[in-house]
Amino acid sequence: MIQKPKNLAPANISENAELVLSKRYYRKDSDGNCIETASDLFWRVASAIAEEEKKYAKSNYQPEELAEKFYSVMTNGYFLPNSPTLMNAGSPLGQLSACFVLPVGDSIEEIFDAIKYAAMIHKSGGGTGFSFSNIRSKDSRVGTTGGVASGPVSFLRIFNTATEQIKQGGTRRGANMGILRIDHPDIMEFIRAKEQEGEFVNFNLSVALTEKFMEAVEKGEDYDLIDPHSGAARGTLNAKEVFDILVNKAWISGDPGIVFLDRINRDNPTPQQGEMQSTNPCGEQPLLPYEACNLGSINLSKFVIPNKTSDNKEEAVDWDSLKEIIHLSVRFLDNVIDASKFPLEKIAEKVRTNRKIGLGVMGFADMLFALELPYNSEEALQLAEKIMEFIQTEGHNASRQLAEERGAFPAFSESIYKDGKPLRNATVTTIAPTGTLSIIAGCSSGVEPIFALAFARHVMDGERLVEVNPYFENALKSCDLYTNELMDAVTNVGSIASFDFLPQHIRDTFVTAMDISAEAHLRMQAAFQKYTDNAVSKTVNLPNNATIQDIDRIYRLAYTLGCKGVTVYRDGCKSGQVLNIGSKK
Ligand code: UDP
To answer: Probe ligand 1: pick from 25, 45, 74, 83, max atoms within 8 Å of CB?
Structure first.
């Protein structure tokens, strides 16, 4: 264990961050009392991850020096690894990845194995994704008993119940993704599975669409349903009718989402190892069966040079510091793979073969506020592309540097990168939702616009946090417009779109998720996707009065723009929303 230096600067975190960390992240004694502070936590993580450096003789870093650097980037809010790393690094559990995909075979043994493996992963704070597409359809024959099969949706229910019973090692409840191919004979039952509120609450469901299906939608043609067990056609459906029902369900409840399977597989870096059939729970990480991936996010709001006034907003981005943090973050995430203890040997093997990591961003909306760039502007889209291209390029450079020191990922010679310079990681970039990380770092989440300029946030166990956006507060104060009455009014509605007494530049800059058109949401997702190895977590928020045609347009546009999937959410369509506007709730 690397000794904690005496002169280490203490971690300076917000009240909200302290609340979140003390609930689920700090280590506790047998009576449930916290036995570490924020500084202890970040040192535990920094030192455990830097310790791995000792394995590599060619490293340019001393582990002690690296531990201090990792500590500093985390405590200064530049970068955070995903929650399981914060919770479990340097602890006996030692499972550090947020994302897993498990195969579900077409036999009772394989199905219940998957449930057991998922339980083990949930216990450690990871989320699991499954494709149910290999399970034979309802009412088809079961050879060994002569009975009839119950089909994917009935097994999905067992996965859901199992998840319900396992609280994640005292950390969080397991999140799941359930995927079914559009040409599975039980697809209609799957599309309707979440029709009743309260059904399958531990699952996000997504339908895997193929390009063949999308072409059939365009042409209004029928398409074949294929039984996965026999490979035989089991009837046909009209593609346009199925697509319309999908859109309708998404309009009613947001479920199911869609993923574009061919596009995901076109980016599969190791196609010789098989096809990707599922993503992790929030959709940002497509993985092969038994693969896991650890994520980390850079807080972009920290890379704006203060008081740099220029019409060219890119000049106000501190590219040099960003490059340094990208290289450190890639080293950190690669070390996480070595430090992690996986719940299953098969997973450990697979992870060490491809060494996937997922570096992404958070605080993008805050960065735009600091630069006074409206989220729904052409310049914001250009900046998004520029930043992600930079992270992708430098992230790959960092991974190549690591390959020189440590060797390429073992499957490199059979990967799509085999003709280029060796890489240490089969994938480097992913954009995560950063639901909790963004609270810890005190920034806007992922690449999302902010939900409201002032709002109440319900987090774990019914706790409620009230937050006012600090950039908004500063902007108002600098124009001498800040009053308590105004803040009350903003808290009630969340947005200032209708406050025409405020200056135009303030109303243009401080836009919220609800002020932005669905198309602008999606274009931002596509801008980030363009330079992301894996996928982008993004919700296309729609107002309550959005129409079914709006969703139809968004689904088709997501396909045309090259997104790997899309999730829509129409305001107010579900009770118990995580984020609520209004102070009176
Ligand atoms: N995740 C999970 N349970 C949760 C939240 C997240 O299993 O309650 C997993 C899931 O795979 C998700 C990933 O963690 O896609 C990243 O989510 P997020 O960025 O919100 O997690 P954070 O690191 O901020 O806690």
So the answer is: 83
Band of the pLDDT at 575, cuts 50, 70, 90?
low
* Residue whose C-alpha is closest to residue 156's, from 136, 130, 137: 130
Count of CB atoms situated within 10 Å of the CB of 24: 20
Q: Which CATH architecture has domain 99-279?
A: Alpha-Beta Barrel (3.20)
Pairwise CA distance, residues 396 & 417, whole Å? 11
**Would you list the domain boundaries of the chain?**
99-279
485 as an active site residue: the answer is: no
Q: Cα–Cα distance between 159 and 349 in angstroms, integer?
A: 25
Pocket lining for ligand 1, CB < 6 angstroms: 82-83, 98-99, 126-127, 172, 175, 280-282, 284, 295, 432-437
CA of 480 to the centre of ligand 1 (A): 40
Closest CA to 270 of 98, 413, 397, 423: 413
The Cα 511–Cα 496 span in angstroms is: 8
Task: Name the closest-CA residue to atom 1, ligand 1.
Answer: 127
**Most ligand 1 atoms within 8 A of CB, residue of 45, 436, 534 to mutate:** 436
Length of the chain equals: 585
The minimum-distance atom of ligand 1 relative to the CA of 128 is 11
Could you confirm whether 545 is annotated as catalytic? no
What is the distance between the alpha carbons of residues 180 and 196, in angstroms, rounded to a whole number? 19
* Res 168: pLDDT: 54
Catalytic residue among 53, 68, 268, 282: 282
Q: Whose CA is nearest to atom 13 of ligand 1?
A: 98
Give dist(CA 77, CA 83) in Å, integer.
14
Residue-wise DSSP of 418-430: TTSS--S-S--B-
CA-nearest of 133, 161, 159, 137 to 150 is 137
pLDDT higher than 70, residue 62? yes
Q: Which two tokens stand for residue 128?
A: 């699991």
33 counts as catalytic: no
Tens of pLDDT, residue by residue over 504-527, are 999 999 999 999 999 999 999 999
Residue 162: what residue type?
Answer: A
Identify the pLDDT of residue 72: 98
Specify the pLDDT at position 510.
98
Q: What is the pLDDT of residues 127-149, one digit of tens each?
A: 999 999 999 999 887 766 667 88
**pLDDT at residue 290 above 70?**
yes
CB neighbours of 203 closer than 8 A, spacing ≥ 6? 156, 159, 160, 163, 176, 177, 178, 194
**What is the pLDDT of the chain when averaged over all its residues?**
93
- Half-sphere exposure (Cβ direction) of 245: Cα atoms closer than 13 Å: 15
Task: Give the closest residue (by CA) to ligand 1 atom 5.
Answer: 175
Distance in angstroms (rounded) separating the CA atoms of residues 584 and 58? 59
